Amino acid sequence: MATVKLMTDAEAEAIPAVKAVFDDIRATRKSDFINNFWRALAFDPALLKRTWEGLKAVMATPGTIDPMVREMIYVAVSTANACQYCVHSHTAQAKARGMTEAQHAELLAIVALAAQTNHLVTAMQVPVDPEFQV
Amino acid sequence: MATVKLMTDAEAEAIPAVKAVFDDIRATRKSDFINNFWRALAFDPALLKRTWEGLKAVMATPGTIDPMVREMIYVAVSTANACQYCVHSHTAQAKARGMTEAQHAELLAIVALAAQTNHLVTAMQVPVDPEFQV
Amino acid sequence: MATVKLMTDAEAEAIPAVKAVFDDIRATRKSDFINNFWRALAFDPALLKRTWEGLKAVMATPGTIDPMVREMIYVAVSTANACQYCVHSHTAQAKARGMTEAQHAELLAIVALAAQTNHLVTAMQVPVDPEFQV
Amino acid sequence: MATVKLMTDAEAEAIPAVKAVFDDIRATRKSDFINNFWRALAFDPALLKRTWEGLKAVMATPGTIDPMVREMIYVAVSTANACQYCVHSHTAQAKARGMTEAQHAELLAIVALAAQTNHLVTAMQVPVDPEFQV
Amino acid sequence: MATVKLMTDAEAEAIPAVKAVFDDIRATRKSDFINNFWRALAFDPALLKRTWEGLKAVMATPGTIDPMVREMIYVAVSTANACQYCVHSHTAQAKARGMTEAQHAELLAIVALAAQTNHLVTAMQVPVDPEFQV
Amino acid sequence: MATVKLMTDAEAEAIPAVKAVFDDIRATRKSDFINNFWRALAFDPALLKRTWEGLKAVMATPGTIDPMVREMIYVAVSTANACQYCVHSHTAQAKARGMTEAQHAELLAIVALAAQTNHLVTAMQVPVDPEFQV
């Protein structure tokens, strides 16, 4: 179904550059599970490595935004970009990091409200208030 | 510049249905400032009222997500939907609710990362892992 | 401001392939006004001609959808695609074809509602009901 | 497949806030069929109620735009936002309200043409003509 | 699964306007295969014909951009517009025209990078440098 | 106009982490010009550095896709994502790398055609042909 082949663990074992990333994903996440996104990206070890390192730097490094909130923001963007896989995977991760049903519902309400006013604003071409300028 | 006229305070005073909403915006926000979005929507008092009440229910009602985080999620969706006015107004509101420069930078990093992987996933058509299904 | 030069009437006069399209736009619309979109496309006469003929076939030919409604649908798509110029030009055309303020407000309400439920559906990944299948 | 559970009729019966909305949907639409969108939203009765009331106000209330045309506009926005479920459900509703095959084809032609010129305009960054300003 | 019926070869044989387009697709592509896009569009012979002629003019006519590169650009746009079918069909065509795995990976890297910086730019509302103006 | 301050050269001189990136941009591009995107990102030196290194790896490293073609693909994605700044900056870069007017017109034609068929496919929900599956 994908436009590239998904790499199995057996195949990954044979390609050191892929094995190294898979090992790091497993160590970082403290889980044996490698999801399909990484198995797809593995067709190009350099792209796999760059993408994983970028994601690790943003999502798996202590920062100023709570890890669960980071996943909720990820879901928000993925929804607006209509990425089905990303909605599934990051909703699962937000839940794994503690998102309750009430928070999930509130996230959906904010995303839907933003979409609604985004479209109203664009349809009316509202000029930016000087008060909002830096 | 807009496709509808922006309503001035003088004009709003003369239309009870608009005045009522403007008054409620001012009371709810504890500020005299009415931004252009509401002045544009005011060309249709019913649409103005429904939109404001929807927004108030989601953004100005105590809930399970922190008010500053709600604005950050709003910025994320508005960015993905390419709504310039919304990016300006909700970034300003997130800052007003305490978003620091470090949090702003982290928000941008998450939004940009999500966009990057959203596009990778779509270009590779990665199938959803059974593990992510409810 | 554009990424291509906008062609003036004087320049268009000197290029028969452009002049022919500009003449046809004026004759079809019964107006001397050539809007910037066509002046921009004119940098490539073949692209100008193909685009104008495609638009004329869909928008300026009698069909089963009312001309004002066609413009409203155009505004809806242009809003969702965040095309500022297109929102301006097709809102102007819808008004020129009789769209009232009440209809404009109703159009905005439908567009905004659709955006809202589009995002809810995507965020929840709702499966299509068998009842909706052809 | 969804990121939330779809509520069955049996489960809805046991939650008065959900049952009330499902009853109103059935009464308003004069049909026993509750489509999956509402069954998904039902995981949060307040979000379900607000969304249904918003939709009823825009889509199921007499106004200035024909009910079939409203559904066609809904399809247009849903297409541009790449919402598969919404395209299915609102195409079905447009057909149920009388959209013929010829009208469907014409709708698709307008949506596709708008997308085409939206992208041309954005790629050329055409400045808005003063004639289009309100 | 589609919102229109897919036309079989037997049905196409009976409608001269559809048969003529199917014949031309086969002759132009030197292949007997008619993909589902054309079978879907065939429900409206005029839309089918206009769409095919537009596509043939852009994609199957000698020009200044290499045919494989044209397909790669097509994949890029289809990815950003979240069109699953289009990603599948044009990735297949790019491969058929010689796109290697290394080029595919590089294409994905560019698309993902562009999406990333597109979102950063929009979130920061960066003003266009005068140096970039025509 | 931006939601962050644009950093001047004088300010950048005083922040080693920013100065290092600006120096590398100038050295890599063999030009003294630093465009606004980098001046905006400079508000967060770590984000600036990560973004520049990502871009350099994809756009300024020898690979299998011609540098001018890379910029054309960038323009295609930026157009579909409605990023005005990105359309301006990458169109300028494509021209700087040799894109002719004829190639520019052909690029626009492909982008517009893709958008048109993307929307047709989504509106018809065409199922993927088994022939396109990997």
Automatic annotation (TrEMBL), chains A, B, C, D, E, F:
GO molecular function: peroxiredoxin activity
Any Pfam family the entry gives: CMD
PANTHER family assigned: CARBOXYMUCONOLACTONE DECARBOXYLASE-LIKE DOMAIN-CONTAINING PROTEIN, SI:CH211-175M2.5
Domain Carboxymuconolactone decarboxylase-like: 45-126
Superkingdom per UniProt: Bacteria
Organism lineage string: Bacteria, Pseudomonadati, Pseudomonadota, Alphaproteobacteria, Rhodobacterales
Protein name: Carboxymuconolactone decarboxylase family protein
